[in-house]
Amino acid sequence: MEVANETLTTPAIQEKAVELTGSAALLEALIIEGVDTIFGYPGGAIMPIYDALYDYKEKLNHILVRHEQGGIHAGQGYARTSGKVGVVFATSGPGATNLVTGLADAQIDSTPLVCITGQVFAHLLGTDAFQETDVINITTPVTKWNYQVTDATEIPEVIAKAFYIAKSGRPGPVLIDITKNAQIQKFDYKGYVQCDHIRSYRPKPIVRQQYIQEAAALINQAKKPFILFGQGVILGSAEQEFKAFVEKSGIPSAWTILGAGAIPTDHPLNVGMLGMHGNYGPNVLTNDCDVLIAIGMRFDDRVTGRLDKYAKQAQVIHLDIDPAEIDKNVKTTVPVWGDCKETLPLLTALVEKKEHTEWLKLFNEYTQKEVDAVINDELNPTSGEMTMGEVIKQLNELTNGNAVIVTDVGQHQMVACRYAKLNKTRSNVTSGGLGTMGFALPAAIGAKFGAQDRDVIAIIGDGGFQMTLQELGTIMQTGINVKIIILNNRFLGMVRQWQELFNERRYSFVDIQSPDFVMVAKGYGIEGKCINEREELVDALKTMMNHNGSYLLEVMVTKENNVFPMVPQGCSVSEIRLK
Amino acid sequence: MSNESIDKQEFNITVYTENQIGLLNRIAIIFTRRKINIDSLNTSPSEIDSIHRFNIVITESEEVVRKVCRQIEKQVEVLKVYYHTNADVIWQEMALYKVSTDVIAEQVSVERLLRENGARVVVLRKDYTVFETTGHREETDALINILQPYGLIEFVRSARVAIIKDSEGFNSKLREFERLEPGEDVIENEYLNQGQKVFTM
């Protein structure tokens, strides 16, 4: 009992073993790994861990969520803003299966997570015991690594491996399933040693000077070079190295939505967003550049459009930490394997200082065309209902680009990513690869725990909000300060847009009704307001930002607005439509 | 698109792994996710304690095989992956044939059968006899055809095992793997360049 009450926290190997339960050993491990926040939900098979947690309340801040999916999205939000590993607890069976969407999301967006699930007693495995599911096999395709612990003595080593695998190389989610007997079992705990290598695992490829030289030579002779950057820059904490490379080489640079904010949105060489709803110039000029330099991005189909018409004229340099990404979608001329924090400075040293004035001017001309055809009407409408774009524009005035913007999935996501001003890295949290509706509210909660000194603003559609709105309860209970903007167009807008453009306006089940969101928020003790008129917008946003605590602002926007530009599916990026 | 099917051929994928529960599943789903059928799968301990070797045969284009191999190599517990065409390997499958001893003794020239098919007798009992043969698919198939008319009772064929022709120093490199703790630069993460020594990954 004494041992359990005074928590140990002993980083190195101890001379004398101490008797600990598996549960206590797990919590000791978390503390040594620097974990301060856990998002979780208790249940039968994880009760021994929760019992041990009762004694660790001072050291580990456990956030009780309202659903395990909310827990894992919160873990993702936390990881994305803090740069640390997100930690999630869930029980066996339904608790564990509720994690699957978040695991898939974290896997495709390379978010470091360690999820701990309880499991039935080892002797019951395979007997269809109460709340038993085969979590390891269910989660195998959506985890970087997973492992089932059936004996407490394994716990220190396995947890050390879990953290190492989750955060090293290309990060990803790890799930550790611990049977109840292992949680209860007492064993001789000899301390915790962090893992720094695994024989069969090479998180970072060796950097090859030969490829650096070849890449630099290509860049130096390029007339129209173009940089595409993704989340790899942020995950590698290589923002400074990246900025130095861009500024010395003078190359126009465009971002994938997960790369947003790696350099400030108003940097003169930041030419905008790539992809289906990206900016006009970056898409069209992808098929005009002579050297394409992809940094920490994976050529998602939403970025490339039709692959056989994608940058065929260009020589491609691909910097990535994951060798499996090279040549996966786009054939590479020079592969630069490695951590871009290491490869970028080597490349910067070899590239000539240049200014591609004429080439950059071309991007600016396209920007002007886009402003005239799309952006002006979206950001500065003077009549009619409000647009999503003008809400983001007014928000930018108030945040000045310093807030963390968390978005859900759909039209509002594309608009927010297109127009939000971001001055700092780790400011954009969104579900990119998986496109998980319901992501934003719980992710915003986690994002705030990961960056407590920053303003966190969740921008969510009326559809996605209804998928995880129970997490308002988490906000209520923790008293955390998250601003929520619902852009309500009374439609599942993105699907409706596709139905309008490609299915002859056959609006099949996209007409979604919503409750009174403000009243729902009030039910959770969260202040809120709904606005309909343009004149109210600025004041309402100010009220929201100045409010001491969480606040929900519902903005009624145009019902049938479309997000443009758009690269229709099956088309080349240069066939991007302005209307 | 249509060119892809023309380019398809058998590839022999060799995977060295840690001995870990669940790894077979992790590797198998890389194929099933892409709807690739595994023609043959053999997994067994290698000559090094704790390191396992998989031999996987699939029929695909080299492009697909290369991508699949990279995905396999990406798994935490996978040490190394190689792929080779049939021309690059020497391979064998083993087959067992169970027949009625009476029938076979009466109606077949057993001596000739064994000689012509490179087969041998594994078990000889009053009630049944088990033959064994080793070879390529056509060779093991040939013996089925011969024995079928004489009341073949049971037949089983093993997965393919393959030895790589150009695998100079494999064993010593594996031994190095065993000795060298990772983190050192000895094994580079880049098996991708063909023509390079296989272990300079």
Write the layout of secondary structure elements.
The complex is a heterodimer of chains A (579) and B (201).
Chain A: H1 2-5, E1 18-21, H2 22-32, E2 37-40, H3 47-53, E3 61-64, H4 68-82, E4 86-90, H5 94-97, H6 100-108, E5 113-119, H7 135-139, E6 145-149, H8 155-167, E7 173-179, H9 180-184, E8 186-189, H10 209-221, E9 225-229, H11 232-235, H12 239-249, E10 253-255, E11 270-273, H13 280-286, E12 291-295, H14 301-304, E13 315-320, E14 334-337, H15 340-350, H16 357-379, H17 388-399, E15 404-407, H18 411-419, E16 428-429, H19 440-450, E17 456-461, H20 462-468, H21 472-478, E18 483-488, H22 493-502, H23 517-523, E19 527-531, H24 534-546, E20 551-556
Helix pairs in contact in A: 2-3, 2-8, 4-6, 4-19, 10-15, 12-15, 13-16, 17-18, 17-24
Chain B: H1 2-7, E1 9-18, H2 23-33, E2 40-45, E3 51-60, H3 62-73, E4 78-85, E5 89-100, H4 101-107, H5 110-117, E6 120-124, E7 128-135, H6 137-147, E8 152-157, E9 161-164, H7 170-179
Antiparallel strand pairs in B: 1-3, 1-4, 2-3, 5-7, 5-8, 5-9, 6-7
